[in-house]
Structure prediction request, 233 residues.
Amino acid sequence: GAGVSQSPSNKVTEKGKDVELRCDPISGHTALYWYRQSLGQGLEFLIYFQGNSAPDKSGLPSDRFSAERTGGSVSTLTIQRTQQEDSAVYLCASRGSGTGFMEAFFGQGTRLTVV
Amino acid sequence: GNSVTQMEGPVTLSEEAFLTINCTYTATGYPSLFWYVQYPGEGLQLLLKATKADDKGSNKGFEATYRKETTSFHLEKGSVQVSDSAVYFCALSDPLDMNSGGYQKVTFGTGTKLQVIP
Prediction:
């Protein structure tokens, strides 16, 4: 597609359930990021994938969070045993590679509500 | 670690007023600095950037100058319009591997909501 696509756009889940959030990056983009946007907290870095390199997982808040990127394209962020504090908007971004600055393009996010 | 501090909102201005949104940062080395904008119902978009000290980024009438001596990157616009109403995020990143676009994770501020009234 023309831009970064995320699904679902909204997700309401019960506390303790697992959820999967999907990101389809721009075709050909080698870098993919996940961020979390909580009310009044700005954007919190979660994880970064760059090509075939090992992902930078330094931002994942707990071992309940994991992410994978299959075939260097689609990425799935999984949250196990969801808690109310996981409620936030989860944003995905992708970026091409090359010399010089390459802009990261963001999807519209998945709004997760844990009840 | 890196951090970004920006003025809290919401900021409410009348159309054609002058806008300043303050942003200061803490980082090791020489980060690159960005302003992103999030219009209602849309995703984040890069507004402007500056990659070294004294650079001025500009776009759509907005400007920001990379001030290393004050570790600041304040966003300004001389005459705001209703269509500028959005949330603005200041951000920074360390340039690492220039062969892959040069930038890894970006650290964002908390965002400043701007509302421009006619």
